[in-house]
Amino acid sequence: MSDLAEIVASHIVDVPDFPKQGILFKDLTPLFSDGPAFREVVDGIVAHYGASSFDVVAGIEARGFVIAAAIAYATGVGVVPVRKAGKLPRATHRASYELEYGEAALEVHTDAFAPGERVLVVDDVLATGGTAATTLDLVERAGGTVAGFTVLLELSFLPARERLAPREVHALLTV
């Protein structure tokens, strides 16, 4: 296991039956509150892609916002939120998808990206891939070019990689 994977693994708190019965939620907020560990994770993601390989970072609601903002700050680029439906104030692209525990919709502003702008998309956990696939499609519908997709934790027992193929998935820890 790499150093970054160990950092992620050591900061996961399993929360049973959240957000509904039968789901084991992987809470990574303890990682966000540990400054040195969080810095190492952010620096590791930046090193993986290279600071000049993307023009903006898109974070998926809600924990993806935390990671995206840190990466954007570290590289001097902007950050774009991909939000739950009804949370953005201007014209949006919207897409619905199924979660492992229900349905949801995401939105991004129609003018969030300049045409061809290279976008690094980030989130905390990759499970079934529905949220990720929807976000990657929204980025492209809004004019961006996906430069990469990264997560802190990938749940390999779920079919996300197959759902996202042929796109590359970068995960710091896969369990």
Task: Give a description of the structure.
This protein has about 180 residues and is of the alpha/beta class. It is built from six helices and nine strands; from the N terminus they run H-E-E-H-H-E-H-E-E-E-E-H-E-H-E. It has a seven-stranded mixed beta sheet, sandwiched between helices. Strands 1-2 form a two-stranded antiparallel sheet. Helix 4 links the parallel strand 3 and strand 4. Helix 3 packs across helix 4.
Task: List its salient traits.
single chain, 175 residues, alpha/beta, seven-stranded mixed sheet, two-stranded antiparallel ribbon, 6 helices, 9 strands, globular
Q: Sheet bearing the most strands, described?
A: 7 strands, mixed
Shape: globular
Structural class category: alpha/beta
Tell me the series of helices and strands, N- to C-terminal.
HEEHHEHEEEEHEHE
Question: Number of helical segments?
Answer: 6
- Output mean pLDDT: 96
First-residue to last-residue Cα separation: 11 Å
Our estimate of the beta-strand percent is 25-35%
Helix content: 25-40%
| Number of extended strands | 9
Rg: 15 Å
Strand order of the largest sheet: 5-6-4-3-7-8-9
Low-confidence residue ranges: none
